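stage 2 :: seqdesign
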């Protein structure tokens, strides 16, 4: 929910063309 609030805010106006993963950090963990 915090990511959605951030993306809806004015603070995210500089973000363009990005994929934002919301997966509790699993995408950065080593296999």
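stage 2 :: out
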């Amino acid at each position: 929910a915090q990511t959605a609030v951030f993306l809806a805010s004015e603070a995210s106006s500089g973000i363009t063309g990005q994929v934002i993963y919301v997966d509790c950090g699993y995408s950065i963990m080593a296999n």
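stage 3 :: structure notes
- Residues 1-31 form one domain.
- The first helix runs from residue 2 to 8.
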